[in-house]
Amino acid sequence: METIIETRKHLVEAILNADRQTANQLLDEWVAQYGVERTINEILDPTLEDIGKIWECSTNLSLAQAYVSGKISEDFMLKHLSLSDDNGFPTDKKGPVVIGNIEDDFHSLGRKMVGIFLRASGWNVIDLGNDVLATEFIDKAIESGAKVIGISAMMYSTAVNIKKVREEITKRNLSNQIKIAVGGAVFRLRPELVAEVGGDGTTGNAMNVNPLFEKLWSESSSI
Amino acid sequence: MNGIERIMATLNGQEKDQTAVILTLSLYGAGLIKAPLFEYYNRPELYAEGQAAVRETFHPDLILTPFFIPGEGEAFGSVVKYFQTDAPNIIKPSTESAETLLKLPIPDINDSARLQYFIKATELVAKQCSHDTLIGSIMVSPIDLPAVIMGIDGWLETILFKTDIARAFCEKTTEYFVKRANAFLAAGANLIVLPVCFCNPEIITPFILNNIAIPIYREAFKQVKGPIVLHHTGSPMNAFNGYLKDLPNVIGFCVDPKDNLDVARENIGEHKLLLGNIDGPTLNKYSAENISRRCKQILTNRVNDNHFILACSAADIPLYTPPENIQAILKSVSDFKKENN
């Protein structure tokens, strides 16, 4: 059996090669030998952290590699976590939180990845899909008790529509209750846009979405 | 020198009166003639009128036929949404599942109204400017096209986890691509511009590029009866261009504003056209002075590069960009030549 370090190294390699099958096989072998909890703590979480660091520090990580990371987490949860609901994720959930692509934006990949990583981190995620109006975001947040809304936009022309969500929050006097996380390719290219559209925070990659949502959740008061 | 002479001299590494310039003014033409965008992207004669206005206003060295990638998806049944001031976008892919992908009918370029729009627009633009301006037709490659048909996420899943289906579908899109590219050339286009909207370093790995994409590119490109320029779309391409430089019929590379031009040149070799790298979609955000300064930096960097064309990178120049910002690019080029004579 490989050491922890060797297994993590091979798991990172499998993810960087976008090789989901090998990654799952490595994790399954560890689960069989050491159990689910140790596999999460000693292999999966540290590996995802390493991949997150690579993503944060370099432009060389592709969406394919990040997507495979998310899929591996999802596969693991579905396969090995017995304390799970219908979606296969832990029942002891955080949230709920609402996510969606802003009005006129139809680039769903980033949003889907954010959903995968949030669920894998134990959040109850309400995904409203593409082309979501400002009022729909706020109505759903109020209805569900979500204190954080994650909004995705790929291009500048659609990102500016996020301003409407901020305006709606201000209009309904909910600025302390609902926080906005924004993300998408355009925010990596133009970080100043986060403030311009009224975002409360962002992250350059989907893997760091859990700490961002935890921070924003802690900053907001209950609805 | 006219646009044809200038670009041909650049291609051959010869002296020219000034650096050739290519501006992404496909959308901008609609603003110049105040055409509603739905009409502009559905009536070829209106598109040609818009590009005639572009020529009259800016005298670019190359005119583009419609930069309308969502239209490629529309031909396969995707639903496109039209906006007031921005280029159209796909709101519903024609299919999202790999299983149904292979059953999707491939449109006939002679029967499809959408594909005929592209060809007729090319014919009309070619009639207007074939004597002095080159014409570039924009389309997507056989392996980038499925991302337009089923969305990036659906195609990424297919490539990653259902590779046999991906390869089988690309056999169909290769045949389709070759017919379309050659139809563009027959309609008067001088070169084919291919935005690498999926096979770029932000989306796929070098392994996928080398093992899946490049064999498909090679098979398709060798059948195209004209030159091809690869366009970075919206992703830095320096990490991949070295792998792509020897593909059949590829004569040049338009790189990202974030791509280092020295590295880009090193990657693609001495004799390929290098195009870039003013950021087109943000041109409206800067003053004419800032744009001139950026152009001068680029031109200074490439002063000894005989195969360089100053070009807008990324997507279309926004419709509401002040014309003086675009004029600033053209003036920078002529001023630079005078200063360096």
Key terms:
heterodimer; A: about 220 residues; alpha/beta; Methyltransferase, Methionine Synthase (B12-binding Domains), Chain A, domain 1; Rossmann fold; 2 domains; B: about 350 residues; TIM Barrel; eight-stranded parallel beta sheet; two-stranded antiparallel sheet
In short:
With 223 residues, chain A is an alpha/beta fold.
Word description of this protein:
The complex is a heterodimer of chains A (223) and B (341). Chain A has helices at residues 4-16, 20-34, 36-57, 63-80, 109-120, 134-144, 156-159, 162-171, 185-189, 193-196, 209-219, and strands at 94-101, 123-127, 148-152, 179-183, 201-202. Chain A is an alpha/beta fold. In chain A, strands 2-1-3-4-5 form a five-stranded parallel β-sheet, sandwiched between helices. The radius of gyration of chain A is 18 Å and the shape is elongated. Chain A starts with a helix and ends with a helix. By secondary structure, chain B is an alpha/beta fold. Chain B has a single domain (3-339), classed as TIM Barrel (Alpha-Beta Barrel). Chain B is built from 15 helices and ten strands. In chain B, α13 (261-268) links the parallel β8 and β9. Classes of the chains: A alpha/beta (223), B alpha/beta (341). Chain A binds chain B through residues 16-18, 20, 59-60, 62-65, 67-68, 104, 106-109, 112, 130-131, 156-157, 185, and chain B through 81, 83, 86, 89-92, 151-153, 156-157, 159-161, 201-205, 207-208, 234, 236, 239, 281-282.
